[in-house]
Amino acid sequence: MRRRRLLLAGASGVGALILTLGLGWWRSRDDVQSGSSLVPLPIGEMSFTLTDHRGATVKPSDWIGRPAMIFFGFTWCPDVCPTTLGDITLWLEELGPDADRLNTVLISVDPERDTPEVLADYLSNFDPRITGLTGPLGEIERAASGFRATFEKIPQGDRYTMNHTAGVLLFRADGGFGGIVDYHEDRRLAVPKIRRLLE
Known about the structure:
Elements: H1 2-34, E1 50-52, E2 57-58, E3 68-73, H2 80-95, E4 103-108, H3 116-123, E5 130-134, H4 137-147, E6 151-156, E7 159-164, E8 168-171, E9 177-181, H5 190-198
Parallel strand pairs: 3-4, 4-5
Antiparallel strand pairs: 1-2, 1-5, 3-8, 6-7, 8-9
């Protein structure tokens, strides 16, 4: 009798465990599926129109056929943006002539202040192969959505700053997502990652 109770208790425990695991899977299945929403779209599937720092109109379809490095930032950024653009400048120098085969782009998240002229002046401090893009807020939001980037205006008294995604997004020549150079990772890993795009 005691043995039967133990078997029934064990069977009930196993049944409860299976039910719990099954319920957990059922509840989290959408989370697993939505993980793909964190991966940037292929560039060919994006749709936005922005203006570069020379005044030319730019669409994502213009980038197909060449690997790309995309970074979101703004000219009033105190540290992350100039640091990252300085890093990108060093990476391009290290790549040498191969860097000419890349689309290297800064998309401003601060169109209120970052006109093409302001971007041109700012980018004159970095490698000339870096293109700055700006435009209406709605178009920048569309671009950020496709790249799965985020940004937010943060008031600071009578001024403001911008919080934004800080990684450098890498794309293959066919427009497919090729990885990221995270702001916090060892910068020595960047050039090997970029070289893989160029192979």
